[in-house]
Amino acid sequence: MSILLIIRSSPAVSASPGIDFLFWLLTARARATPPRWLSLPSSSFSCSPSSPSPRLLLGFGYSFNGNNIVVNAGSANPLYFSVSRSNCDINSIRYRGHELQYQSQGTHIGSGLGSANVQVTQQNNYIKITCETPTLTHYLVARQGDSTIYMATHIAAQPSIGELRYIARLNSNILPWEHPFGAVSITGGSSATIEGSDVFLVNGQTRSKFYSSERYIDRGVHCVHGNNPEPIHACMVIPQPESSSGGPFFRDIETNNGGAFTALYNYMNSGHAETEPYRMGLHGPYALTFSRSGIPKLREVDLSFFAHLGIRGYVPDHARGRVSGNAWGIPSGHQMVVHWYNNEAQYWTYANSNGAFTSPPMKPGTYTQVLYQTEYKVAERQVSVWSGGTAWADISSTYTPAQPLFQIGRFDGQPFGFRNADKFLRMHPSDHRMSSWTRTFNVGASHEGEFPMAVFQAVNNNVEMYFHLNSAPGAAVFHVSTTLSFAGARPHVRVNNWSGPIPPAPRNINSRGVTRGAYRGWGEQYYVDIPAGVLVAGRNTITISAASGSSGSTFLSPNFVFDAVALYRR
């Protein structure tokens, strides 16, 4: 038996006479029972402006309220959300009776689609809202019983604003806090602007939405949450950014309480230290989940039901393939990372302690397979993937360095271990919690943590390294490994009284880096040939400065980030 109960209010219930309050209660198979009308006195219930719709559904389903589609997820912890039929904005998210949507702006792609063709369909336990523009299709899906808004975004061209993101603009009074990195990206209540329009001073600490980022390969679930009026978490779940750009070590904005609202993001591509062309096609699926206190576990999320929803560009697992193999030649103490990419997709995985690896399910095609010594590229090869099969592709490191006269840092593609590298991901380099940006280092006497992670032309240019040689080595090579350059900066090396050549400018990423907590670029390697007779027995000095045709002030002056440096006999 199925019952459709329609309750018509008296005109006094609503400010708009004639609005019907629809309660759908679906209990079994048949739909033959005719609707029954029941008039209630105005004191029975009311409709507040913050409600998702004056048409309320009991049980899974959707209705129309003016220009909005109102969806009831039919979940034990009730979730209603309202989507504009004009532009695809979510303009109400009501969870357990609490309005979580910021009321002055919507939740949407980019800064809003402006206009879109918005359609809704229901198939068994799923409601799908499809929003189409000439170059973009965005899907919002409700699954019966889940307090979750599932999504996917297909693009045929890059959005005109230059980045592809989904931003949930949420009620900062109910969801003020951020997970997993806490207050580092809470910028509301700032007393000063430190840099651009995205780094601020709050309670004496520098904060930015950029400080919420995490490497793709390590990223779990990021959330915003609060305890008043009760514990609530809103989380963004992104299982595989296969159509994003930047590779396994890319990172981007995830959360930001800016005061007026709390933003929860899925950045699918951006110009934030981006090192690859943007990929078209389907981004997702991904999910915006709501819970009381639990945080979803990424590895337990199953979005395979998207295969049955008619999502443009979706490739189910049975139509994908995998790559397995062994990685060789990575010293102990380093991560072994295997990365696959082509123009359409990107994937990655960690190899285990024995070097064995298996990729995630991949779209068929030919890929470049890269092996990293943590983040330092040491090998690549090609591999083809086919539907339903597993390709075998071993890969061995080709990095075989000579024994150095001295080395500072590890060739791992990261600045960690150097001075301030333990802090910069979550604060600006000008922050009072930073250690001083030193310029001198005594090889063999100074601790590695005293070597600066970066050279800023206007802050700590001309970093000097003092070292002692028992005998003159003759000709030598000085290797400077960098991870990221800003404003064309590259290392200019002087050895004692000899000045090396200024290297050509690196490729321009055209994005702020270390001041936003980024260190990953193209990882330029510089080798300086030192003639015989320059290095002497006894005390020697190597000076490294940031060369550039550009200029700037303090931490926005030309700069580069160190990975490691080493001196070798030639």
Report what the structure shows.
Helix content is 0%, strand content 42%. It is mainly beta and 570 residues long. It has four domains: 1-47, no CATH class; 116-308, Beta-galactosidase, Chain A, domain 5; 318-396, Carboxypeptidase-like, regulatory domain (Immunoglobulin-like, Sandwich), CATH 2.60.40.1120; 406-569, Sandwich (Jelly Rolls), CATH 2.60.120.260. The strands form nine sheets. An eight-stranded antiparallel sheet has the order 10-11-12-13-23-20-19-15, with no helix packed on it. A five-stranded antiparallel sheet has the order 4-5-6-7-8, with no helix packed on it. β10 and β11 (126-132) form a beta hairpin. InterPro entries: Carb-bd-like_fold (IPR013784), Gal_mutarotase_sf_dom (IPR011013), Galactose-bd-like_sf (IPR008979), GH-type_carb-bd (IPR014718), RG-lyase_II (IPR029413), RG-lyase_III (IPR029411), Rhamnogalacturonase_B (IPR016590), RhgB_N (IPR015364). This is rhamnogalacturonan endolyase.
Brief synopsis:
Its EC number is 4.2.2.23. The protein is mainly beta and 570 residues long.
